Amino acid sequence: MTAARLEALGHEAMIVPMLERVLLPLPPIDELPAAIALTSANALAGIEASPESRHWRHIPVFSVGGRTAEAAREAGYIDVRSADGDSSDLVRLIEATLTPTIGTILYPAATERSGHVDTALRSAGFRARLVEVYRMQPIESLPDAVRESLSAGRLGGVLLYSRRTAETFVRLAQLAGLVGALRGTTGFALSPSIAAGLPFGRIVAAAEPNEDALLDVLTDDGGTSAAGKC
Question: What 3-state class would DSSP assign to 73?
């Protein structure tokens, strides 16, 4: 979907995931969740890998963004609401919709995560259960096409969706001896903290932490002949 949106804006798109998902077994869930808080489609895949989740389709799902919400609907969940923002927006949506007496909110997540949704929910008086259902493993090297484009100066911009993927991209560029080439590239980041201090020639941050705002920044900046997403 991102590639199609970039191409519609006149860019040549390269979609290059920096991390590979490894699903982990879902631990036993003794109490039926009252709601599910999702911060990514990977978290949804983590619970969907368990046969137990087939009985959860009626449970309200609160999603951090539209893509994850759409994935939940496609999986068969009936009541899905999107915060269209970041993890703080997700917590605020839950606070505005549910009461702390509703029961336990299940929060499936990665072993490494930047947000603390479970802690924020508990601070708001909710019962929250964190279950780690996947981990993201960095890839070992940049694909040949990316190295060639970066080396030749054809990679005009890189869309950066998380701090970890941004750091992974830079580390792999360093391993390939191409860190100098990054200085001729613009990093378009979902938030100011994602690419801060990294050796891009320029860093431009979205006004809001969502893809619509990120692509708006890319368009307002004048665009590039090629853009990569990581």
Answer: helix
Bridge partners, 134 (sequence order): 23, 110
Joined tokens for residue 143: 């694909």
d(CA 223, CA 58): 43
At 62, which helix (H) or strand (E)?
strand 61-63
Q: What is the pLDDT of residue 32?
A: 93
**So what's the pLDDT on residue 10?**
79
Phi, psi of 46 (to 5 degrees): -65, -40
pLDDT cut 90: percent of the chain above it: 68
pTM of the entire structure? 0.71
pLDDT at 228: 55
Position of tokens 């259960």? Answer: 129
Give the rounded distance of the alpha carbon of 196 from its chain centre. Answer: 18
Report in angstroms the alpha-carbon separations of 224 from 125, 215, 227.
47, 12, 7
- Token match 């917590």: residue? 91
C-beta of residue 181 within 8 angstroms of C-beta of residue 34: no
Closest residue by Cα to residue 168 from 137, 146, 145: 137
- Cα gap 216→20, rounded to integer Å: 28
In the structure encoding, which two tokens stand for residue 74, read together?
A: 């496609």
Does residue 114 surpass a pLDDT of 60? yes
- Give the number of other CB atoms < 10 A from CB of residue 230: 24
Complete edge-to-edge strand list for the sheet that includes strand 12-15: 12-15, 226-229, 157-160, 186-189, 202-205
